[in-house]
Amino acid sequence: MLRNGAAGGGGGPAAANRPVRVWCDGCYDMVHYGHSNQLRQARAMGDYLIVGVHTDEEIAKHKGPPVFTQEERYKMVQAIKWVDEIAPGAPYVTTLETLDKYNCDFCVHGDDITLTIDGKDTYEEVKTAGRYRECKRTQGVSTTDLVGRMLLMTKAHHSNIDEDLDCRKHTDNFGKGPKGRSPWTGVSQFLQTSQKIIQFASGKEPQPGDTIIYVAGAFDLFHIGHVDFLEKVHQLAEKPYIIAGLHFDQEVNRYKGKNYPIMNIHERTLSVLACRYVSEVVIGAPYAVTADLLDHFKEPKRRGIFQLVDSGSNLTTDLIVQRIIKNRLEFEARNQKKEAKELAVLEAMRRLDEEKH
Question: pLDDT band for position 12 (50/70/90)?
């Protein structure tokens, strides 16, 4: 059982008693605990964290179409407890003008390089000016890795996707690289440590007057549907203390089937702990909510306390997988057209060369 804490004071020095303002930016497509850990580290470097999120248009220009819309990505980032403010429509290339506009002292990014479509370092200007800090990238997770896990789910031996879907005929190629072998393991390489849990979960005990609310589920591939739901639950009381129960992997697989869960219990724990609406997490919560479980949380021993909450979102993990498949099919179609065009040009050049000789 892990208690979750709201964002506390940063660890950075404040010049002339002025709060240190930190800038982070990115696509934040398919937000995962690696993103949250980056923002946690950035927040610890100062007193106030502003996160710039790129538009769909900017991402499509430099990297290809995102899985989630910009509105979904804005809300996902805002739900991370270490974020104080978001800046919608942040430019893809980070400039001194952007830092000055938001009165930020410096920007923070992970220890990997981000390039524009022209191959230029997007942080070159702020690095040169000495207004750049680096944080450690979270090993064992990336958006690419998660996409790979989902694409492998389309394999026939662990999927019940309808046979008439167009993606069915492409399943043999879905997790394969250019050399025809899969770069994906389909298994998480994330190693959980007690220190990582402590970093995410330095929380508080419920206080007198708090309304303790228990929710449970898989919370797999933590997404905007989960955020919408937890936000609605948070609004049910003046002083809510939300406990999220996470089912073990075997239990999730039992009731969801296929190759679920995509994220293991350790990854899902960190994802939920990073959400500002959650106070505490129960790892391996039972599927059925029993009287003993309620008593353990010192809930009133009355019954009739179950309530359904409509998140207002129809997004599910299945729908996210379908978005990934759709993007992959479009990517493959573009590549096939490009290759056909290149082959046609080469063939034309070959014929011209033969005619000259």
Answer: very low
